[in-house]
Amino acid sequence: MAQRRAEALSRARIIETAVELLDADGESGLTFRALTERLATGPGAIYWHVANKGELLDAATGAVVAAALAVERAAESPQDEVRAVALGLFDAIEDHPWLAAQLSAQLSRGPAGPVAPKIFESIGRHVRDLGVPKGSWFTATSALVHYVLGAAGQNAANARVVKAGTDRSEFLDAVSTAWEALDAEEYPFARAVAEEMRDHDDREQFLAGVDLILTGIGTVHALD
Amino acid sequence: MAQRRAEALSRARIIETAVELLDADGESGLTFRALTERLATGPGAIYWHVANKGELLDAATGAVVAAALAVERAAESPQDEVRAVALGLFDAIEDHPWLAAQLSAQLSRGPAGPVAPKIFESIGRHVRDLGVPKGSWFTATSALVHYVLGAAGQNAANARVVKAGTDRSEFLDAVSTAWEALDAEEYPFARAVAEEMRDHDDREQFLAGVDLILTGIGTVHALD
DNA sequence: ACCTGAACACCGTTCAAGT
DNA sequence: ACCTGAACACCGTTCAAGT
């Protein structure tokens, strides 16, 4: 399967290939062996452009996030802008299911990397436009960012399962049935929401959560 | 460093040792080599009790989460109960920084495992007591769960850095300075919140986010 | 039923050597 | 400056053999 080298090796081309491997086979699909084969080169050549695997993963994550955030969307209000950015990340995680774990790993390694400020910026500037007082910008934006990444990540599981061949409704049905089978004493709530899970719309549900937080922000700060 | 075997090998003892290794050296600290050395046994013995490394990680995660959720706390209202559960998970992630990535990995693999219903149950039953209409239980609970896990995970980064010897305020100072050094055109918001980040209290900030979502839930459903 | 431990396939990374 | 590719240390997992 080794291909002739089409272009000269470069950091950008390595990252691009890494994203392809991740999309195709998930995190375990990105190995230096697979990379050298696709790029028709040796490991040493890759190490010339990239410090190590961690840096490569960070770069792949950064590239995909940057592309997702760069998309312009029509929006009529700060609330709409937040929804648009949120959906952009939601879609990116749906297209690249490995992104969810990678993002939370990178964020939980600290806000030092380049991805954290990028995401905070693209959501936070609209929180600011909402009229939230400055002292609450960080809290309000964090709540939105954490929800968006968490919820989108959960959704990525569905995307992965569907990709693997199982039908979506079949999958939700299986999970729903599993929750209904839980102990009645210990899990009354999980059993009660199992039904709700069976035929919910992912996107709708996701946006409902965003709106819930936007409402909270609006109420606490009594906007307009 | 190999120790004499103190008790008979058992699944519980393997999981317990796995947690110790994870606490000491993070996810990369959990290897079958380290495990066999501590338990004074061979890999085959461990595979008799545990199917593979993934199952072991899931079990370690489940054990720590179960312990965290089992702690009883004084609470005077459903809101207070939610805050108590949230803080319990916050503390658990602070004590076991590897838990954050593990939890989001497990949740994003789908709500099939045992951890997802456990967390949903412990938060959701109080959402129900809040008076939220049944059709919104899942959305409201999801928003809380995703925020709690995401925010606590971000906080775990601090804990890890402090553990490594760096002073907390020194660390926040460094990140804050890094954000202030970002491009003024591209990152006006990140630069503006950098200051806020410098001397925020993690716990306070975390609970403010929980309250924001609780307010959103209360407003949307016009409770009491 | 439970454990031993050598062996296997695979991984990230290094480095002396080439151009 | 950029690339080659053999070699190294380490990993998860298997399995024939023991008790």
Notes on the protein architecture:
2 copies of one chain form a homodimer. The first copy, chain A, is mostly helical. Chain A has a domain at 76-222: Tetracycline Repressor, domain 2. Chain A has 11 helices and no strands. In chain A, helix 4 (53-70) packs across helix 6 (98-108), helix 5 (78-95) packs parallel to helix 8 and helix 9 runs antiparallel to helix 10 (188-198). The radius of gyration of chain A is 20 Å and the shape is globular. The first copy, chain A, starts with 10 loop residues before the first helix and ends with a helix. The model of chain A has no long low-confidence stretch (mean pLDDT 90). Chains A and B meet through helix 6, helix 7, helix 8, helix 9 and helix 10 of A and helix 6, helix 7, helix 8, helix 9 and helix 10 of B. Chain A binds a DNA duplex (19 and 19 nucleotides) through helix 2 and helix 3.
